Amino acid sequence: MVLFPLYFSTYVSSLSLSPSFPLCHSDESYALLQFKNSFSVEYTSVCDGTPPPTTSWEAGSDCCAWSGVMCDNRTGHVIGLDLYCGQLQGIIHSNSSLFLLHHLQSLHLSRNDFRGCAIPHEIGKLSNLQLLEIFGANLSGHIPPQFSYLSKLRTLRLDSLSSKQPLRLTTSTFKRILANLTNLQVLDLSGVDMLYVEPVFLMNLSSSLTSLRIPNCGLQGNSPDTIFHLPKLEQLYLVGNDNLRGSLPRYNWSSSLRKLDLSMTKFLIDIPDLTRNLKYLDSLHLGNCNFVGSYPLLFSNLTQIISLDLSDNNIGGHIPWSSLNLKRMEELNLAGNNFIGQLPRFYSYNGTQISALPYSSENISFGSVPWSINSLDLSNNLLNGTIPNWLYSIPSLTYLNLRNNQFTGHIPEFESFSLQSLDLSNNKLHGSIPSSIFQQVNLGSLDLSSNYLSGFVHNHLSLNNTLAFSSVNTNHSLGILPNLGSLSLSYNQIQGQVPEWLWNVGTDSLLYLNLSHNSLTDIERIPWRNLQYLDLRSNLLHGQLLIPPPSIRVFSVSHNRMTGVVPSWICNLRSLEVLDLANNTLNGKLPPCMGNLSGNLSVLDIRMNKLHGMIPATFFGKKSALRAVNLNGNQLEGFLPPSLLNCEKLEFLDIGNNMINDTFPHWLESLPVLQVLILRSNKFHGSVPNPTVRFPFQKLRILDLSHNKLSGNLPTKLFENLRAMMETDTKKGLEYMGDLYYCQDSVSVEMKGHFYQLVKILTTFTTIDLSSNNFEGEIPQSIGELKSLIVLNISHNKLNGLFPPSLGNLSKLESLDLSSNVLVGTIPQQLSDLNFLSTLDLSENRLVGRIPSGTQFQTFGINSYRGNMDLCGLPLSKLCGNDLQHPSSPNFEQEGDEDEQTNGIDWMIVLIGFGCGMVIGISIGYTVLSEKKIAQLMRRIGGERLCKMLKRLKNKAR
């Protein structure tokens, strides 16, 4: 992006050598004015205050003199149009006058807002185009096959990274583009949806290609290694295609290849093959990859690299500093590994190479480190010791991230003032905050949270124990950071009112503010005019909600003491994507105008308040973007509004623990991506009818209808269509519902009479809870088809008939509760094959015969079978037939007492989970982790739209 204006002007000047300039053609001048007038122009901060080029466009003047317009000096035809950061807002229509400019050779429309429109097919009429760039312009829809008509293109750049809906590329269109655009030198399709494009067609890329960028495109399958052989290829970026497989060629790499990024792909990285060809590269990014071979061998061949990313690869041992060319290194990312030890303190320098010396060395250290590094990320490792002074002396350092290590000691004073982002959080640092931090005039992101800092800042702001801000009034300290874009002071002991100095920090620049998990009692105002992320969770705030600025996208005040009603001014926050008001004492009714937020609002969490009345009919607006709705634990009543059907993106719906009085909302079955439906503890009544659509609840994985008044037979037809519960995908890793940085979908699960809060929901977790209703009849055999089911609870109903043997097919089942029914017959021997079954309750039925033998059944105590007078066999003392008398196991007889004596859950649950029920074990493990540890695990696991949004927001804030 930075190089484009120079390239563009050079390209145009090569066509403009004549000293005289003919006037532009009137029809082209008119077409340009029509194109301008089809958009509105709105000034934004994205373009740093640069006036839009079209402000100079006036009728009656020579269009060749207009800003952004280039003409051929010989013919006067418009051959170039550069409207980068034109701040245009509107739609490019198919009849746009743009397509009348047939002589265009270069077109640059990046950094505008085309409001999610598709690229018109008429783009193919501009057949003379040699350069086309449209990135950061909010386009969506399919890339038209008419792109293949642009056979003269040398540069094509499209992206979807800033769009709410991505551009899409089909295999057929991609084939046509590759077949006809044989002059392509630069191809950039960043973020374009290529999920259904077969990677094999990459072998048809133009031999003229110098740069190929297709990151985060959803490519999957096997990639041909021929892309590494393209003779002129200098840059190759495949990062973020996490299902794209391939291997590196052993020989014949392109000798021109300089930059390679295969991060977050499934490429098999053979280290000998890589090191044999590393001599050509100066930028190597292999974060979160699959390596073969020894890591030391890799490090021994990196002396020519100036940008290196080996993050999230579980590399251990000490960082081999002496193997890196620190004099040339500009970017180094070793985050998310298992590096140990201390950072070296001293270096020897022979004029070309910096060498790390032993930690105990007394050699003279550099007064000025000859290291030109710009970005250093060593976060999420096991590094310890103090942070050496030389690290604070690098004059070019703009980004420093050492979070989540075990560094101790003081923070030294900075000798340079180039920092733009500093993160030292989650370490064991102590002492005072150095005054030099507050002299970093370019600092846009600062995070010192979760340390043990103390002392005074500028002798104004008192600190004590764990960065505990007092309520001393001051207009200084951090207030001298007017350009700060991101500030996190979470997980400290900030008490009382928000410190006065904070009001002067980044009034216009602050985008991200996190004050969560402190002891704040009052916040007077929200003065940051462009704030987009405000997190005040887990404080002691009281009173009514304060109004955030219209720019706010994420707003959380959950787990506080807020009172009053949910104010109607919330409906005016049209940019809002996450609204979290959970766990307060808000009362009153839900505002009907909330439907006005339907276009952007993704997460709505108002659980555990004192709201009452009906859910308004207009509460869920048309074309809703809602992904998660949680209204659990209020006093809502009446019916569920049918407007819920507007939420076609809804994945999570929890309206449990209210007073909703309605029949089962079977019409929710048509929501295409609904995964979690919780209606527990309401007044739902009547039967659960048969589905009325072809694929009902096709994504549903958690269904909780417990503690209602539902009656009739169990919904056999519904069980036969729960497709997501029939899938047993063993290839899935440890993934959770929600978004990595903020939104955690959580549920409570009842097992063995206890409720366990799953702070995050595994995507493989499936459960059905129909307990405490009035269901009757037999348990249908079709439940046995739900082979991914982990928890099944149909207790406390009026079910009768035989125990269905098909339950033995539930190979993933970890918890089964059929207690307090009228089941008869024997317990099927097939249940002994359930190797993960760790909780079983069949008590209070009319079962007879021998209790099955098997590994799992030996772990269940007598409480699992009580109230079944005709059962026999271990662990019961009642014998079966000619069995010998077996004394009851003391361990089993004490089971009930142990349950009563248990006051909490410890890590034994997780250990049991791995042995008998991994999914539940890991999920419940989250309930005993500190929130700090949860945050650390979240950062190590992976993440969708809000995750990307927050990454962009933090980067922008820097």
From TrEMBL:
Checking PANTHER family in the record gives: LEUCINE-RICH REPEAT RECEPTOR PROTEIN KINASE EMS1-LIKE-RELATED, LEUCINE-RICH REPEAT-CONTAINING N-TERMINAL PLANT-TYPE DOMAIN-CONTAINING PROTEIN
Query: Which keywords annotate this record?
Result: Cell membrane, Glycoprotein, Leucine-rich repeat, Membrane, Receptor, Repeat, Signal, Transmembrane, Transmembrane helix
Q: Where is the Leucine-rich repeat-containing N-terminal plant-type domain?
A: 25-72
What is this protein's name?
Answer: Leucine-rich repeat-containing N-terminal plant-type domain-containing protein
Recorded family membership:
Belongs to the RLP family.
User: What is the membrane topology noted in the UniProt record heading this document?
Assistant: Single-pass type I membrane protein
Coiled-coil stretches are none
Show the stretches that span the lipid bilayer: 907-929
Q: Name a GO CC annotation attached to this entry.
A: plasma membrane
